[in-house]
Amino acid sequence: MQAASDGKVFRVVVVDARPELEGRAMLSRLLAAGIAASYVHLPAVAYAMREVSKVFLGAAAVMSNGTVMGRAGSATVAMVAQSVSKPVMIW
Fold first, then answer.
1. Quick one: which of 20, 14, 91, 26 has its CA closest to 59?
2. What's the pTM value of the predicted model, to 2 decimals?
């Protein structure tokens, strides 16, 4: 949201998965902040990946050996991104 307030122009694709569907809340926050965003479910991630330049994934935990644990579907998103040479960043 800081980037948008700094005047940077970008669009967000929110990828969501069941059972929690937490991406809906994120989509609402992005739209309320005036950030252009779209919403897709996990099975459509390969289709949506054509539109992105970077992939940001949240980490639930980082283990002492460097292994990153994420939410359900994070590995799928990362593998699809890798298959089309899109950079993946964990935050």
1. 91
2. 0.84
